[in-house]
Amino acid sequence: MTAQSPVEKIPLVDLQAQYRSIKADIDAAVERVISKTAFIGGAEVKNFETAFAAWCGVKHCVGVGNGTDALYIAMRALGIGAGDEVITVSHTFIATAESIGQTGARPVFVDVDDVALLVDPALVEKAVTPRTKAIVVVHLYGCPVDMEAIRAIARKHGLKVIEDAAQAHGAMRNGRRVGTLGDVATFSFYPGKNLGAYGDAGAVVSNDEALMTRIRMIANHGRLDKYLHEMEGVNSRLDGLQAAILGAKLPHLEGWSKARRAAAALYTSILKPKGVRIVEELPGSESVYHLYVVRVPGRDRVMDALKAAGIDAGVHYPVPLHEQPAYRHLGMKPGDLPVTSQAAKEILSLPIYPEIGKARIERVCAELLKAL
Ligand SMILES: *Cc1c(COP(=O)(O)O)cnc(C)c1O
Q1: Helix (H, G, I), strand (E, B) or coil at 37
Q2: What number of other Cβ atoms are within 10 A of residue 41's Cβ?
Q3: Distance 211 CA to ligand 1 centre (A)
Q4: Over the stretch 84-141, which tens digit does the pLDDT of each residue have?
Q5: Three-class SS state of 145
Q6: How far is residue 186's CA from residue 68's CA, in Å, rounded to a whole number?
Q7: Judging by DSSP bridges, how do beta strands 60-64 and 202-206 pair with one another?
Q8: What's the CA-to-centroid distance between 68 and ligand 1, angstroms?
């Protein structure tokens, strides 16, 4: 008898598999930057900005240090600051709200719908006050929100719309890519995102040239010229190494998104007939499945059972922002956003990445159904 082979662990994301598939291109890109010592600014950054803008279908892109700074800089450039209110969701990563606070404005949290767990436009409209300046929508898990409804509210009340597209590179809303659906959009290239750098990186995109000039200045110490500072800004630049790596990856992104959608479709085809509740796409939206999320009773116990079977599941996110100590000053109770608070107890992110393949998905599903 042969010894039983150890059960393969299935990670939540597998960055090694991706590196192996494009190693020669990545290594060449890194080598190029180092041989030129073009670490800050330079051709690699410019080339990536141009390529990413074209890929999104917008006129301008400014690379920045990370996705959180991208949000902060975009809002500062829009003139958002102390005394202003910005409407957003509590069901998101803290960066969405943190960046609002960094401008001096106050985040106003609204609830999400119970199907896609995305911002509920009707609740946005109810939250508008004379102090409201903007709406930050989050295309959470890779699925675009109902931007037609959001834009209608923004037009009616004279508000700016910022897309937090950190999880949604290339996702579509009624045939249009995210990044083109509001006044300005922000991306994160954190390593685990759908387009990931090998460190922190981010970008802002928009068709508004004057706005993008302000964004470029704020991101680089308030200057366009080396020694002329129009204002105080921040130091938040996309660096040459990250730009070169992102540039090498960008041609693969479309294929990776297709592979993610195929993986999600396979999960759904197995789990939905068994009665597992899926966090679904909105009608009119095409998700790029940064995460594949189900809702299960006894979530923590189910997650532990998967872990014991070598499957790394996750929770995005277990404590909604309005219940976080950091937002205690807003004086909200869990019951104020009932869908958000209930979902936080049930959501479970299953492993998904372009290289995951059919066999691993089937094993995750089998173990999940066993745990339920
Ligand atoms: C990752 C993420 C961010 C922040 O991006 P960083 O690059 O990590 O700063 C913002 N919003 C959402 C929804 C995210 O998932």
Answers
A1: coil
A2: 15
A3: 21
A4: 999 999 999 999 999 999 999 999 999 999 999 999 999 999 999 999 999 999 999 9
A5: coil
A6: 9
A7: antiparallel
A8: 6
